[in-house]
Amino acid sequence: MNKNLNPNKIAVIGAGGVGATTAYALMVQGIGSEIVLIDVNKDKAEGEAMDLRHGASFVNPVDIYAGDYSDLADAKLIIITAGAAQKPGETRLDLIKKNTGIFKNIVSSITEYNKDGILLVVTNPVDILTYLTYRLSNFPANRVIGSGTVLDSSRFRSLLSKNCGVAASNVHGYIIGEHGDSEVPVWSLTNIAGTPISQYCPICSKACGGDDLEQISSQVKNAAYEIIEKKGATFYAVALAVARIARSILRDENAVLTVSSLMESYYGIEDISLSLPTIINSNGIDRVLELPLSKKEEKAFKESAAHLKENFEQLEV
């Protein structure tokens, strides 16, 4: 690690719903001893920082404050949540053009002050913006990460947990590919206590048949749209997902998480960012894992990549 970086400092760019809630999750879980909030609306960033600071006596010691880009010069981890929000009826990919321009400014401002930290992109469409950030920043691929399908995988486990009557922490399964409409549930490797889901379901107290599994896939894919329709935005679960990634980085955990990163000939895919189970530690990405997918799943994963590349090629980068 660069000796000029503070290994426990996190910068959060964007103090909206996701950014502020992420800072809260980091604070409550004791991840990072210094957190700086940066937003184009300085009053908003200051207000959020003040609100968080007032709870300092209830958590581990942490210095939370509002700042500007110069304050992220020594940050180990830079989390980007800023950008246009997804509106009811919009897909994540509808946000591409809006957020591309925003990201060009953000990334250039980051690299002016910090070239050695780890970038964690949360803004949607996260896979395309992660790849864009990689291209714009000239950071090595291991230090440009997207939150990817970490949240989707948690939604997947949560719904299976409810369906099968077992704790979500004991459900093991992944969503890979795009964080969006072309995401791929890896049913062939999903298991509970080592028992493949196809074998577990018939003996489950709440038997989950094939139709239920398809319904779960659909619910995972459409969860954000439903939440946005009902309350206008999603931020609690995504903030917890981001905090989980941050913890693995700052505590050098070697955790396996389905983050989005540059594809380097994984399943023959290159030049786009997608999610696969990935070992995450203090260096960022340690290793991307190629799972033994079924032929159907591998085909769907490649189609997800083609879908994103087609959309990225429409941008003026």
Automatic annotation (TrEMBL):
Binding residue positions for NAD(+): 14-19, 39, 44, 69, 83-84, 99, 122-124, 147
Q: Where does substrate bind?
A: Q86, R92, N124, P125, V126, D127, D152, S153, S154, R155, T234
* Keyword set includes Methyltransferase: no
From the UniProt record, give the pathway where this protein acts.
Fermentation; pyruvate fermentation to lactate; (S)-lactate from pyruvate: step 1/1
One GO biological-process annotation of the entry reads: lactate metabolic process
Catalytic activity annotated for this protein? Answer: (S)-lactate + NAD(+) = pyruvate + NADH + H(+)
Gene3D superfamilies according to UniProt: Lactate dehydrogenase/glycoside hydrolase, family 4, C-terminal, NAD(P)-binding Rossmann-like Domain
> Per its record, what are the GO molecular function terms?
L-lactate dehydrogenase (NAD+) activity
Query: Does the keyword section mention Translocase?
Result: no
Q: What is its EC number?
A: 1.1.1.27
**Domain Lactate/malate dehydrogenase C-terminal: where?**
149-314
Activity modulation:
Allosterically activated by fructose 1,6-bisphosphate (FBP).
| UniProt xrefs under SUPFAM superfamilies | LDH C-terminal domain-like (SSF56327), NAD(P)-binding Rossmann-fold domains (SSF51735)
Indicate which residues the UniProt annotation says bind beta-D-fructose 1,6-bisphosphate. Answer: R157, H172
* Source organism superkingdom: Bacteria
Q: Which family is it part of?
A: Belongs to the LDH/MDH superfamily. LDH family.
Q: Which NCBIfam families match?
A: L-LDH-NAD, PRK00066.1, PRK06223.1
Descriptive protein name: L-lactate dehydrogenase
Q: Organism, per UniProt?
A: Halanaerobium kushneri
